[in-house]
């Protein structure tokens, strides 16, 4: 069995963040839900607190984008990591496309706890706070 390295954990966490963000911006609800553990949960302003795939599916389905949008997730710091669990904090900037171009709608931070599910990192809990 190989030793777990920080770089491998961090890359797995970043892959989960990217998969979630791209699916969310594209309106692919099933793919968003797939980034969560079966009993995973979220607590995000404007979306609410939800637990489990069925509740997550209903919540994310209700906020499918109607206009172009992009979540820019950056400055991700992975901490308290092991082979099976990691904590990450990331900044997020939410852009919304309109007739006059792109506008910054929200700026905030994600706090995530992820589990390694047979080599794929999934959200156990995802929380967000917004400052604008």
How does this model look, in words?
With 132 residues, the chain is of the alpha+beta class. Helices cover 27% and strands 50% of the residues. It has one domain: Roll (Nuclear Transport Factor 2, Chain: A). It is built from three helices and six strands. The longest helix has 21 residues, at 6-26. The relative contact order is 0.21. The mean pLDDT is 96.
Summarize the structure.
The protein is an alpha+beta fold. The chain is built from 3 helices and 6 strands; from the N terminus they run ααββαββββ. The longest helix is centred in the N-terminal third of the chain and has 21 residues.
Question: How is this fold's topology laid out?
Answer:
Blueprint: H1 6-26, H2 29-33, E1 36-44, E2 48-51, H3 53-61, E3 69-79, E4 85-98, E5 101-117, E6 120-130
Question: Could you name the key traits of this structure?
Answer:
132 residues, alpha+beta, Nuclear Transport Factor 2, Chain: A, 27% helix, 50% strand
